[in-house]
Amino acid sequence: MEKFVNQPLKSRSFFTVPLSVLLATFATALGAQSVEAAKPMALRTIMERLGRDMQAVTGAISKEDWPLVAELAPRIAKHAEPPMSEKMRILAWLGADAGKFRGLDGQVHDAATAMGEAAQRNDGQAVIAAFSKTQQSCLACHQSYRRSFVEKFYGSR
Ligand code: HEC
């Protein structure tokens, strides 16, 4: 038994132990990090979806696939909303700015709706104009609120 312990295994365990300690340290660090980092807000998932749908519209415009634009536009206009509890947190944080925030979301709604209507008329120019208006509304909200939102709800960046 003693012979077994003192044989080559010993030198192997010399590496094995520190490695496992190292791994445990990493695991602890990772664990601590994921506890520290706030879990993603539902709004982020909604935004990612909006981003993908806008990209899909760009592709559809390039192909002059107006039926596809007409299908995508209402998804952008009537995107999902965060659950009530998250909405309350966001509105509480916005305070007096809630109206402006909602207004920018309303601009996205109106511009995307116009884009869908233009697509139904196969009016490429109007689709592109409305697409631009939609994107400007996305940008306006991001420029006003995104950084402070991330700082508030994720405590970083
Ligand atoms: C009323 C405000 C508002 C409007 C309008 C808005 N966004 Fe956002 N968007 C946000 C906020 C706030 C964040 C940060 C969310 C987060 O990090 O959890 C964000 C983040 C994003 C992100 C990054 C998500 C990530 O994974 O970090 C994308 C992509 C995005 N928005 C796309 C869009 C698109 C496309 C539109 C327009 C069609 C749009 N947004 C309109 C407020 C808005």
UniProtKB/TrEMBL annotation:
Keywords: Signal. It holds the Pfam family Cytochrom_C_2. GO terms for biological process: electron transport chain. SUPFAM superfamilies: Cytochromes (SSF47175). It comes from Alicycliphilus denitrificans (strain DSM 14773 / CIP 107495 / K601). This is Cytochrome c. Residues 1-37 form the signal peptide. One of its GO terms (molecular function) is iron ion binding.
